Amino acid sequence: MVSEQRKHIDVVMSVAERGSGIPEAMRHDPLIRESWLRCVHEHRLDPTRMQEAVILPSGRLREHQEQMDEFLQIARQGLEALYQQVAGLGYVVLLTDGKGVTVDFIGDLRLDCSLRRAGLYLGADWSEVHAGTCGVGTSISTGQALTVHLDDHFDATHIPLTCTTSPIYDSHGRLIAVLDISALSSPKAKDSQALALQLVKLFARQIEDAAFLHRHRRHWILRLAGAPQFLQVNPTFLLALDASGTVAGHNRAAQAGLSPADGGALLGRPVSELLEFAFKDVGKFFSGHSAQPRAVLRAGGNELLFMTVMPPPVPSAGRELRETVLPAPLAALSGGDPALDAQLARAARLADSPISLLVTGETGCGKEYFAKAVHASSERRKRPFIAVNCAAIPDTLIESELFGYLPGSFSGALQKGRRGLILEADGGTLFLDEIGDMPLALQARLLRVLSEREVHPVGAARPVPVNIRVIAATHAPLEALVKQGRFRDDLYYRLNGAQFLLPPLRERRDVAAMVRRMLGGREITPAALEALCSGRWPGNLRELRNALDYAASMAGERPIGIDDLPQPAAAGAGLAAADDRELQQQLRLHRWNVSQVARSLGVARMTIYRRMKRAGIVAPQDA
């Protein structure tokens, strides 16, 4: 233990045990002092401990992420914009849930080991009860934006860090997330983080308001401010009203600035209790009704506010039904596999989102089919879907293929020039397959396209505006490429607006359904179908498609039998027998306790029962 950490522990113990020996800086920061006392007396934390960062395993992290999946998609753009402001200063950006678990992260992955060790990483638990006084945990405990700087931290392990945070509230006033910018090192003076605090508060509010507008898109939205100039782009207060004029949601500023005389909650109150405004007159305040915003008084006072109103969309017939049913192009990708179905449901919710998607998975698992299905399920479906295999285009041609060029731009250029694949996708979707193979120099140009929404053809004097939705795919681990310096971290974060991991065919539970769908009504014997379902399929759907085409040709007019399958697929019957022997061994090992076997193999109990029935395995107690 270094002397600085030993000294810090002594100070914490002195404050916690006697309430004395408080450093001069802390006397002016009661939030930190109260947090230290809370750590000792409420959370029962030991000041002498030196605890490593708590990083949740991937399974538990996914549980936290899935509970706020829709919010994460909304917040992602705010995180990217904030990171662009602070990345050059050595900061990382974290978003935690309301329990303090980091559910999103943007940082320099080349510092991966240092960031993970410090807990500035995806899956880190920064709740005060586990980490002590820290930016996230103390923000959750107090509900305030704050900076926990260097030796403000309770745990001596964290004293090199500076963490600046702001809570994020939902439209019912509940704290649901914390936005954090942190650095591994910092100037000693705490006021060096003053600008960081203002930035994180600003972006937290922007994320809050974006989530508010999304959640209440079916309500009447009232925008209010003390001056009309920024009413449309930056209103002070947001209120959501239901069809009866009752408050259904509000932003944080509204709870503080529009609270009624009795000081109670805004939710469920008629708007007339908050403003001198009758809901029947709402039409006079529509955004496009007049050139100037209209004024309204706060109820029971003389404070003047300016207000515009955004009405809810007009309901269309069957809209609710369409929203609950998976679009046909996405539904066609699954025959009932639960893991894939969950990914398809997420994709349906994001089909019309502007964020970029990153699709990962083994070769042949259907990444391009998935991208095409997302495009076909979106409002862009009538515009082009342009697929680019970044690994198949030579390095010398990829720039001109993607960005296009003007006539005479270089030796060998076409006389009429080339429009370029990015402009060909204008209005539609650009699918970048094997994005990890794109040369570094072109990654910078692609990043500009995504951030500026414009493309600069080779030889052109001016950029050309372009409206595209980008879906990228790779079987390579992009994070590893970033750490190796072979892929730009800023492009990685821009592409990874939402990530989809497609399961390999060997892990899917719908192989039989997919086989029948691919055969299109062609008959197949039970033995052949069983062999196909038991195969390992290293080439995934592509290999299965080839095997079925081969088998159909070999069978001719008769039903496809096991002898018609190519040798690797036919061997699946032997693999199934080996699997059955392994299952029997597991059952004996666990004394025929099916629940324990299922847990050890990581499958559902019904899967074990089905395999036992198929193999004719009977438990001794049932014999």
pLDDT under 50 segments (min length 5)? Answer: 317-324
Sheet-strand content, in percent, reads: 5-15%
Return the CATH architecture of the largest domain. Answer: 2-Layer Sandwich
Structural class: alpha+beta
How would you name the oligomeric state of the polypeptide chains in this document? single chain
Looking at this structure, what is the CATH superfamily of the largest domain? GAF domain
Tally the helices: 26
Number of strand elements:
17
The 3D shape can be described as globular
Question: What topology, given as strand order, has the largest sheet?
Answer: 2-1-5-4-3
Count of the domains: 3
Please give the share of residues in helix: 40-55%
Question: What is Rg?
Answer: 29 Å
Q: Overall mean pLDDT score?
A: 84
CATH class of the largest domain: Alpha Beta
The CA-CA distance between the termini, in Å, is 64 Å
Largest sheet: 5 strands, antiparallel
CATH fold node name of the largest domain: Beta-Lactamase
Task: Walk me through this protein's architecture.
The protein is of the alpha+beta class and 623 residues long. It folds into three domains: 3-203, Beta-Lactamase (2-Layer Sandwich), CATH 3.30.450.40; 216-310, no CATH class; 330-501, 3-Layer(aba) Sandwich (Rossmann fold). It is 40% helix and 14% strand. The strands form four sheets. Strands 2-1-5-4-3 form a five-stranded antiparallel β-sheet, with helices on both faces. The protein has a five-stranded antiparallel β-sheet with strand order 8-7-6-10-9. A hairpin with a 5-residue loop joins strand 4 and strand 5 (175-183). Helix 25 crosses helix 26. It is globular, with a radius of gyration of 29 Å. Mean pLDDT is 84; it is low at 317-324.
